[in-house]
TrEMBL record:
InterPro entries given in the database record: Stress/Tellurium_Resist, Tellurite_resistance_TerA, TerD
Family statement drawn from the similarity comment of this UniProt entry: Belongs to the CAPAB/TerDEXZ family.
Cited CDD domains: TerD_like
The name this protein goes by in its record: TerD domain-containing protein
Naturally occurring in which organism (per UniProt): Streptomyces cynarae
Amino acid sequence: MSMAKGSNLQVPITALRVELGRRSGPGVPDADASALLLVSGRVRTDADLVFYNQPVHPSGAVRHEGKQDLGGHVTDTLLVDLTRVEPEVETVVLAASADGGTFGQVPGLYIRVLDARQGTEVARFDPAATVETAFVLGEFYRRQGAWKFRAVGQGYSSGLEGLATDYGITVDEPQHAAPPPPPPAAPAAPTTPVRLTKVTLTKQAPSVSLAKQGGTSGAMRVNLNWQVRGQYSGGGREQGRAVPRHADLDLDLCALYELSDGSKGVVQALGNAFGSLHRPPYIHLDGDDRTGALDTGENLTVNLDHKDRFRRILVFVTIYEGARSFADLHATVTLQPQHGVPVEFFLDECTVPSTVCALALITNTGGDLVVQREARYLVPERGVSPQRTVDRAYGWGMNWTPGRK
């Protein structure tokens, strides 16, 4: 249902998928979806902001699911389960921020609300934009025991930072002096303010220095999450989250490594080669996930306290079972240093019969780790394993033997 600015309608009290959509193209700014949970028009703590750096609300009511690029149509989605919104929360604001320009430069901007279980459209709003760098596109609000959705369309010229600050979010601004502590009667502030920055790697800008972004120590999580085209079945649910189709799909996140002493190896679920975080190779595979969910997914952790021990790390993904290629699988890769900004990128659509994809190459350059977006689909020759295929493509020179989980 297409809505005019200011109009409202009642929505089902269920899990709803909120989709921020746009068209991509040269020079088009990125756009990011976010949500704020409000009591009397303000957040209670900084945890009430859900976005790319803080993807899950403590209540589980709102989850940021990440982006997909399907042939030039980009969507960034939130899953809102109204049954899990805490009773004191009156409003869930649905916002967007532009990165690298204004919303007047973003073609085809819209917000859609869908029933997450059925996939049917509940509401759609296409705002008119000019110089705005942030938008309150819509909001869910309580009215007489029911939930309604309102098409808002309120623009900001101060980006996500200005929008978030207006609602009471404490923004991390290391270049300024720290603000004075609140008076004793005020609620306790979170220990760490919200960090609103990120780095998105693209074909045009494929690499980034971790040191320049603050990622020089601590643990760095490498997360892979994915969705299957068609998004959701109408069947099962788990903890308020829609379960993706092809739940038997098993993607394995892996890493080839070469250390400064010349030793080489692989971290992967196959053969239970999960690695170690506090001894060589200082890389650990957290588990083996089959859902693709953003808050779980497949995760590697790299110990940046030993960054000088790394010569290079190649992060890649293989299909273990459940699909013959990466076609129709749309994935997001996020590298989250403990003390730096997140680095993210998206996989292009796969058009070849590939069962292995090189994701990112991390190289030690003069003591700094540089992340290079690869997003390179490889097609194994007949009888050649995905691991051996990626080894040959990047010249790792290892000997491989058959293995299983």
